Amino acid sequence: METQEKILQTYFGYEHFRPGQQDVITYMMQHHNTLAVMPTGGGKSICYQIPGLSMDGTAMIISPLISLMKDQVDALQALGIAATYINSSLSVDELKKRMHDIAIGRYRFVYAAPERFETASFLHVIKRLDISLIAFDEAHCISQWGHDFRPSYRSIVPELKKLRNVRVFAALTATATEAVISDIQRLLHISDEHVVNTGFARENLAFHVIKGRDKTSYIRAYMSEHSDESGIIYAATRKQVDSLYENLKKQGYSVAKYHAGLSEEERKNAQSAFIHDERTVMIATNAFGMGIDKSNVRHVIHYAMPMNIESYYQEAGRAGRDGEMSNCILLFSPQDTQLQKFFIEQSQMDDDSKQQEYRKLQAMINYCHTHQCLANYILDYFNDPSPKPACKQCSNCSKNHEKVDITEEAQMILSCVKRMGEQFGVTMTAKVLKGSKDKKVAGFQFQKLSTFGIMSAYTEKELIERIHFLIAEKFLSMEEGKYPKVRLNANSVDVLKGKQEVMMLQAPIPIYAEEADYDA
Ligand code: ADP
């Protein structure tokens, strides 16, 4: 529609809509509740800002990210648009003044956190207001299937849906699995034809998995070549953050740190130093990042594997919001798996939820072992609808690895799994193939199996890596849980019968690894 494009040009100064934007705007203008799933940096704000400007009344934006509200409001005000936000950072007087101005319809846009909609005084005001639209930003937080579930975000929905003075509802998110999408649809009454899913692809991100390297020396080598680029290093525990911080600081790098064990002031100062480029690299636990909108982050390095692909993609996705090429590097070691399992076991979740977390963890482990294009692996995980040529820049695509036929090795591994009764995990299977003298192996009488020691020429580490590869490529299945068991599946049977060959990339050579150093 010409008028929408005109608003895009005159208010925002952009020539054309990005994929999906115009559909979302058109549906909203026709008063159809709409869900927009677009990647970070894809331009979700404009999807509700243009309808908000085109319709009468006030647009209410519900955002769980208090720190982003001010930025959004500042940006709108700079364009000459009346906008404000309501959150706990305001003084009582300021809050009163803003609430009065909201009540008389002075603003086109009002940003508020979900919790605000639970207060009677706020509801009293908005019930009497002419509301153009209500937009749920970061809408995955509404769903308990989402990874950042906010109970109050969900509980306010029925009350808001009852309002008669709202023309249309919109939900926007960058991370939503199928379960989350249908949950949001059901809650907000969004029909299938009004779900605009442009996919999650972030073409400027190069994904890398690095295995078998000393993590700290890898980071130091990387930093020595990228010392003036802004980056985030995520570690799994506060202890890891502290020790990495000391290590890099000693080397003279400009670092800041952030975790829940620091005081609020320390965290605030660290965050601000990073945002304003006074410190180049932030070393943090996953407590850092929600609501951080820093566009020039050139690399996100994970010192350890996170708990699932959702968290990984969200954290890694903080790189390259400005569209420039950026690296997302995951440093994997087998201990990372143990740590994540420990977190799941220690949690208060019921057994079903734990089982689900184990399933998600397994998909994350498979990411570290697959030889497919890493970008496509992630997009497949989210059932991304867009076409997917190989990315040509991830650690599996970028080098000219040769493919080797490992069908025979695979058959040996699969038959060993079968002979062990499909009741054991990866390490035990590797020990049997190796012919290990381990007491546990003898305890189960595995030395009597015909597959005992048939791959003794390999190191145990190599065998573990091969088995993980077969799982990641779905030639073997993993029964998830505290004590996972390796099982055969239909693909395994095809391989054993010689109907299916198994090809593997020659060990991928990671960036910043001297070849002699590499051992995985
Ligand atoms: P998201 O919320 O999806 O992460 P934003 O709404 O913050 O993304 O938009 C990211 C950046 O892209 C912003 O700087 C925004 O102004 C810009 N942008 C949005 N739409 C367009 C467009 N059609 N053309 C050019 N730039 C755009």
TrEMBL record:
It is an enzyme of class 5 (isomerase). Transmembrane segments: none annotated. Its EC number is 5.6.2.4. It catalyses: Couples ATP hydrolysis with the unwinding of duplex DNA by translocating in the 3'-5' direction. GO terms for molecular function: DNA helicase activity; hydrolase activity; ligase activity. Signal peptide: none annotated. Keywords: ATP-binding, DNA-binding, Helicase, Hydrolase, Isomerase, Ligase, Metal-binding, Nucleotide-binding. The keyword Isomerase applies. InterPro entries: DEAD/DEAH_box_helicase_dom, DNA_helicase_ATP-dep_RecQ, DNA_helicase_ATP-dep_RecQ_bac, Helicase_ATP-bd, Helicase_C-like, P-loop_NTPase, RecQ_Zn-bd, RQC_domain. Residues 25-194 form the Helicase ATP-binding domain. Residues 218-362 form the Helicase C-terminal domain. Belongs to the helicase family. RecQ subfamily. This is DNA helicase RecQ. The lineage of its organism: Bacteria, Bacillati, Bacillota, Bacilli, Bacillales.
